[in-house]
Amino acid sequence: MESWFGDKERNERLESNHRLDGIKGKSFVSVIPEEILFEWADQDRAGRYPRLGWHIQMVAGNEDTEGEWTELALECLARSGNFKEMLDVFVSRIRPTSWSGSLADLMERRIGLLKLLEAEGDNETYLKTVISELEENMQSTRDFESNRRQREYLSFE
Q: What are the Cα distances from residue 94, in Å, to 22, 53, 66, 72?
């Protein structure tokens, strides 16, 4: 595990490469038994769970639906000891880097994933804040897309 995750520079390259695989894609981590992943990550929860969060399959389901969190993602979130940092990793990964069609529609489905999470206390407040910020961004995107379609329609006539 250290050969893949131990080196900070290598891990940053892996993180940026995995973003391209999407939230439902599998990576090399998917072939490692969960017990081994947890045994490794539990040795340094603050450092290792966020690194692991960049590489696990987070969501199961069809791209056309909201999908659902994988048990592995939920377990990592619970075991990490730092809900906010893990949530930030997951939010970074659910932000689309490429798409076809409406970005706002895709964002809406992905925000739905966050609404499925359960949190308490400060973590609940943080989760609600993150969701609210993403919803504002989604609405701005939806407005932009609508204005663009309207401009394109008017320029056609």
A: 8, 12, 11, 16
Spell out a b/e string for 123-151, using b for 16 or more CB atoms within 10 Å of the CB, else e: beeebeebbeebeeebeebbeeeeeeeee
Dist CA 36 CA 34 (whole Å):
5
Residue 130: pLDDT band (50, 70, 90) is very high
**For 71-94, what is the mean pLDDT?**
94
Residue 67 near residue 24, CB atoms below 8 Å: yes
Strand partners, 69: 59
Instruction: Return the C-alpha torsion angle 86, 90, 91, 96, nearest 10.
Output: 160
Other Cβ atoms within 10 Å of 9 Cβ, number: 7
Domain boundaries, the chain: 2-156
Entry pTM: 0.78
pLDDT of 2 reads 62
Query: Mean pLDDT over residues 89-114, rounded?
Result: 88
Interval 28-54 mean pLDDT: 92
Tell me which residue of 132, 111, 108, 117 sits closest to 86, measured CA to CA: 117
